[in-house]
Amino acid sequence: MATIKEELRAAVKKLFDEDRIDYFVGYVEDYGHTFPAILAKGSDLSRLTFDRKSYNNLADFLPELRGSRVGLVCKQCEVRTLNVLAAEGQIERDKLVVVGVPCPAMVDPRKLPADEAGLDDLDESYWQEKCRRCLERNTPFADVFVGERASTPTPAEGWPLLQEVEAMSAEERLAWWREQMSLCIRCYACRLACPLCYCHQCFVEDNKPQWLDKSVRPENNLHYHIIRAIHLAGRCIECQECSRVCPVGIPVDVLNNVLARDFAERFGYLAGETAEAKPALTHYERDDKEDFIL
Amino acid sequence: MAAEYYRLSKDKVAELFERARADYDVVAKTRDANGNLVYGRPVSFDDVAFVDEQPPMSAKAFALPQTEALVRYERENDKIRAEGPEAPTRDILIFGVNMCDATAFDIIDRVFRWDYLDDPYLGRRAQTTQFALACASIQQDCFCDRISYDEDGVDAVAYDLEGSYLIKVQTEKGRTLVERYKDLFATEDGDAESSIKAFKEKAGTAKKEPMLESAKPALEKAFEHADWEILASTCIGCGVCTYVCPTCHCFDIQDEGGSSRGRRLRVWDHCTGRTFTAMAAEQPRDRQYKRYRQRLLHKFWYYPERFGPLLCTGCGRCITHCPVKINIRELVEYFGGLKDTPPGGARHGK
Amino acid sequence: MAEEEKQSVRETAAPWEPNVVGFLCNWCSYAGADLAGTSRIPYACNVRVIRVPCSSRVDPLMILRAFREGADGVLVSGCHPGDCHYIEGNYYARRKLIALKQLLDHVGLDPRRFRVSWVSASEGRKWAKVVETVTRDLLEAGPFHYEENGDDQGRAPGRG
Predict the structure, then answer these.
(1) Chain centre distance of CA B29
(2) SS3 C108
(3) Which CATH architecture has domain C17-138?
(4) How far apart are CA C54 and CA C1, in angstroms?
(5) Taking CA atoms, what residue in A is nearest to B61?
């Protein structure tokens, strides 16, 4: 039986041979890492892979390739992202060939064992937190599906770190965030790794008016992270890429999780569940629950 | 000065650390609130992390802080008070710094010493002593073995030779350190350089051909190479690689505050970012791959052209922490003609 | 000026007075505040008013920037739901402000520092009451130190 890698390589070769795509966005393995690559016709497809280190949210590369016909590996994170992007009119579905995969759940990079031979067998305790909460492991709207369909998962409830932080008092939370923010170096990897932060001009770069001071200080960093989370309110699909790419290990996705949970509870809205639902901040109900307004 | 060699017994290290704290602001590898490695100020010797692994952030911030006030001003009625840059109140000793971070200071020095003398930087630099600890192993993404730059300019280096450290002292600052705690150090009688060579062979940090310096002639011809676009197109344009880099030193000048009080700041900036050097008009490098190419070529072509060594110590941080794992070593090898296959297998397809 | 007109709701001036930035919608709350004034209703003078076309014009960036520039509290006030001059602006504003409120509460900001109110053009009395409430709460909460440490060098270990 062909492995998922072989099936994937054959499927991509077919897409190029039949001239259905200009570029293929997938994961490749080289120098000990699995990482995203944009492949054009004539590229070496023998490095294509899909394994438990296929972390990146590949929808992040779509704006760069706008106008081209693109093949894209879509695990569940990309599926939900594409739904949000479609609702916001950001993708041209007819130019997109979705390659579906059964997602084996990603291994938390901080918990990667030194010997990666047994990677496929690692249990839930090694997974990225988002994977424990995953609702569906197979790509629902795949144009091409490679690999064997995975079984439906039993999603875990809640985010452990969020619960931990929320158990603190307000003063403790303030101190905890201040500590985290003192680590931030404002490299903006969290913003740029996010497939939904696609604005051409971002408030952090505006200088007239200058919303955000450039000095790297905890209060400015918090200012940035709060606005980043606000701009993703009702849009974040919680792929945790922002936290994964943080070079200094700040769990910035906690802020997004706060809003995602609140929007689910308050407005019954789950970002990226469908491409049809109206984005939460461009929509309202007359009786939206307000509990703090004077 | 000519190199001097000493021995430091392992059971004396804690004492050295404690006594040095009386004379220096001692910085060492320790753990932050999240348990991640960081160059910080350990509460006690037990908090010092003796590991080969590098903290995500290099040690360059001790000479070139990410945010540094060049001028502070305050106005009271008709009086304006301005204060220049603040120098550290105490000399800094970076205890057990990685070699790839220690060598970087000398590389950045060349920029800040060349032409205009950058006083805030050079002042901090003069107050910083590096006491490096050579790695006993090489990490997955490291490539210091492929860069000829070595211990040059590092104040003092410790090599872990079973049971005791061999200390190589190369500068006056290094000698001052040893002189201060003379009773802890023994003189080295053996053939120190042979021991160091053997240590590096064992650690895997000995130099291996082809060195990356040899890529320069081909790189000079590769500016228009058709594969730049596809190979660097996954670059998302964040500042991780430059901020974690021990040798990247670009900065921006920003004013904060208003008419009554404020400050002029120097803050790190990154050439991979969309707004880098976009001052009066647009950013001169309009596509992301051009910005990535700029970073690579600055390190392996433009800087060596002017200053000699590479603007890289091979620490590999920009690979480890890159969100999309772009590998600068592989790209230098590919565009520099040391390797035929592109990393990841992507080709331009035109 | 008559004695009762000068009279503040507070007996004596506090040693410290909170600075409150108020973003008021042009059509309801701004007119409401105007009415409070023309009706000569005495109330605290701590709110610095910024007139905006609609409460939905208020971007969370403005609110955070106000704190950054030294506000001890921020008050956003608009038309009652259903009364928006632009039919639905305040409904959108409500969702946006709820999101900001959630985050500010989460990061441990004192909930007394960020307030939202619905005040119509005829509610001069309500406006005065809102301002009194906000000011009194902030007097209790004390000054807001957005910048805890004025020194760039004293930051996290290892960042120089």
Answers:
(1) 14
(2) coil
(3) 3-Layer(aba) Sandwich (3.40)
(4) 35
(5) A185
Q: What count of Cα atoms within 13 Å lies in the side-chain half-sphere of residue B301? A: 17
Read off the tokens for B39.
Answer: 């160059």
Rounded Cα–Cα distance for residues B335 and B318 (Å): 18
Closest residue by Cα to residue A170 from B136, C111, B7, B308: C111
Q: Identify all chain B residues contacting C160, using CB atoms and an 8 Å cutoff.
A: 61-66, 68
Long-range (24+ apart) CB contacts under 8 A made by C30-33 are C31/C121, C32/C77, C32/C119, C32/C120, C32/C121, C32/C122, C32/C123, C32/C124, C32/C126, C32/C127, C33/C119, C33/C124, C33/C127
From first to last of its 294 residues, chain A has per-residue pLDDT tens of 479 999 999 999 999 999 999 999 999 999 999 999 999 999 999 999 999 999 999 999 999 899 999 999 999 999 999 999 999 999 989 999 999 999 999 999 998 888 888 888 888 999 999 999 998 999 999 999 999 999 888 899 889 999 999 999 999 999 999 999 999 999 999 999 999 999 988 999 888 888 999 999 999 999 999 999 999 999 999 999 999 999 999 999 999 999 999 999 999 999 999 888 888 999 999 988 888 888
Size of interface B-C (CB pairs under 8 A): 40
Phi and psi, residue A184, nearest 5°: -65, 135
Task: Please state whether A227 falls in left (phi above 0), alpha (psi between -120 and 50) or beta.
Answer: alpha
Task: Using the Cα atoms of residue C10, residue C15, residue C16 and residue C17 in order, give the sign of their dihedral.
Answer: positive
Question: Which of B66, B275, B345 is facing A45, going by the closest CB pair?
Answer: B345
- Asked if A44 and A19 touch (Cβ cutoff 8 Å), the reply is no
